[in-house]
From TrEMBL:
Residues 359-374 have a biased composition (Polar residues). Residues 355-374 are annotated as: Disordered. InterPro entries: DUF354. It comes from Halorubrum cibi. This is DUF354 domain-containing protein.
């Protein structure tokens, strides 16, 4: 069989990398269409995926819309010439490529606020797969899996931490560190949203530097690295998850890194304008499990983070809760491969029709993760 995977962002590369590898090893033909955005190309190269770029995009909202015509002009003929059996993606590019080529498109989504993208992609998708905590009904083609998109690459069945990450970061064996991840807020779904201000970023660095080494990963690339007591996170982006796993604390105004840290059992605080009563289901679920602190109060970020750094028992308890919870999640890579080989989502193990209010329900795999498996 023949499959196309769209990787528009670095997170999409991680989402699909193991499925691409497994399908290739099973003898299928796979074609990855990538967008030059952030570190997407560096990851495609690192994992040796069979890719072609259909275009580029900056970290500003305007860049996305300016480049759309060129993107479609490139991706539609590329998909048609490959003639796939199934297309996988995370939004409109994949759905519209499916429409143009007469190919079923399977979309994997986890963000309820992206209403425009849902509106222009849902009618043309053969199936929409979302985590069990997803709170929005996407119609009769909507399926759910018990887990998170990030479980495609951070599930204990597929991820093992790199024991050499401290050497990569230039740290001593017992040197504790904090990772601060700042969002560029340049995507179309970030319109009207915001995170830490420049002054708040400075205060985060100065406060946490009193307790641990501080690394900063700034998606927008705007931080003045010379004036504050912090180091730039300048190792290969493929090592980010290893750093998240080894960190004492992660503080972020992004979405994906928050979920990644939570699934790795690292104390994580998330603060941005999405937080509130209408927050995304993923983060409500992770907070319910005691794996994330969501707050829009900056002073709470400082106080909570300082408390984590002062009390080693907090991290131990956080990891215990993670081990109990993550063992019950579906390995999403298994689901993606099964959907690909079945040619669709119907009757695939690990998927069921979406229904409201399934957060916190028990899964079919209630096996705790042991420390040896992390």
């Amino acid at each position: 069989m023949r499959f196309v995977f769209f990787t528009n962002t670095p997170a999409h590369v991680h989402l699909y990398k193991h499925a691409v590898d497994r399908l290739q090893r099973a003898g299928h033909e796979v074609f990855v269409l990538g967008r030059d955005y952030g570190c997407t190309v560096a990851l495609l190269e690192r994992y040796e995926l069979p890719y072609r770029l259909y275009g580029s995009c900056g970290t500003t909202k305007g860049s996305v819309f300016r480049n759309l015509p060129r993107h479609y002009a490139n991706l539609v003929p590329a998909v048609r010439s490959f003639d796939p059996d199934v297309i996988f993606g995370v939004g409109a590019y994949a759905a519209h490529a499916g429409l143009a080529s007469g190919t079923p498109a399977v979309l994997i989504l986890d963000s309820e606020p992206t209403s425009i993208d849902h509106a222009i992609s849902r009618p043309f998708a053969a199936a929409l797969l979302t985590p069990h905590a997803f709170r929005k009904d996407l119609g009769k083609k909507h399926y759910q899996f018990h887990g998170f998109c990030e479980a495609a690459y951070l599930h204990p069945d597929v991820y093992r931490p790199n024991p050499g990450i401290r050497d990569e970061l230039g740290l001593e064996a017992d040197e504790e560190f904090v990772l601060l991840r700042f969002n560029a807020f340049g995507s179309h779904h970030d319109v009207g949203q915001s995170g830490f201000t420049p002054d708040q970023r400075r205060r985060l660095i100065e406060t946490f530097a009193e307790h641990a080494t501080v690394f900063v990963s700034d998606e927008g690339g705007t931080r003045d690295s010379d004036s504050l007591p912090a180091r730039e996170f300048d190792v290969h982006p493929a090592l980010l998850h290893d750093a998240l796993s080894a960190a004492r604390l992660v503080v972020t105004d992004t979405q994906t890194v928050c979920t990644e840290a939570a699934l790795l059992g690292t104390p994580v605080i998330r603060s941005n304008s999405f937080v509130g009563d209408d927050d995304m289901g993923n983060f409500r679920e992770l907070e319910r499990q005691g794996l994330v602190v969501n707050t829009d109060e900056f002073e709470e970020v400082l106080a909570t983070g300082t408390g984590v750094l002062r009390d080693e028992a907090v991290g131990v308890e956080w990891r215990r809760r993670r081990n109990e919870y993550v063992g019950g999640l579906v390995n999403l890579t298994d689901v993606i491969v099964a959907v690909a080989e079945a040619g669709g989502a119907a009757a695939v193990s690990g998927l069921e029709r979406w229904r409201a209010g399934t957060e916190g329900t028990n899964s079919d795999r209630p096996t705790p993760v042991t420390e040896e498996s992390t």
